[in-house]
Amino acid sequence: PPRDPTQNPSSPYHIHPCESPSTVIVAPALVGNNYHSWSRSFRMDLVSKNKMGFLNGSIPVPATIDPLFLHWERCNRLIMSWLLNSLSPSIAQNVIYFDKAIDIWIDLHERFSQGDLLQIAELQEEVYAFNQGTRNVTDYFTSLKALWEELDNFRPLSACECSAKTYHTQDFIIRFLKGLDDRFAVVRSQVLLLDPLPSVNQIFSLVIQHERQQPDSTSSIAEPNSFANTVVDRARRTPNT
């Protein structure tokens, strides 16, 4: 007889003993305006559980006479429970009578992802107006990166778009450097002259080093050249990863 797929831990039909229908796998619950962060979190969790195929259509519904059908139905009901547990009561009430998890997933996407262009426009405006201000470099970088990643969530790049990813990374580097305060003006200019640019993490590390070496804004402006030379030298010696 064919091997029972539920006993194979690598099979999407396998259900771990800790995977209960009562589990809340995403918090906070979907309330509408948090759809993109909510859906991203839900996808990540299902990918880690090897169950995303039940929502993206890559695991089709077997025929009712197929021995896999009962296993599929069990997984389908489990994922439906996870979805319902991760929705606000009013939204859950609207989808509780669906029979397939994928139909709930599609319905939620169609209802709550329609404001994408408006939200993209608002995020782009926020990203390009964002600057260091009174923040230290670490706080500024972290906040800017969070905004950038939120924007990425609306327009993810596919794995094959290598050139687009390169330009996208360059855009972030430019935005990060341009938003730094005037203490980093020479560092910014030196880095932007490099071809190819160092990685995001290399540039962040160099700017952090500069911030730590300069006790106040006066000294950081007065002696920029030695650090600018360090930026060029280190970036040339360090692989761009």
TrEMBL record:
InterPro entries: Copia-like_N (IPR029472), Retrotrans_gag_dom (IPR005162). Residues 16-63 form the Retrotransposon Copia-like N-terminal domain. Residues 82-181 form the Retrotransposon gag domain. Pfam families: Retrotran_gag_3, Retrotrans_gag. It comes from the Eukaryota. This is Retrotransposon Copia-like N-terminal domain-containing protein. It comes from Cajanus cajan (Pigeon pea).
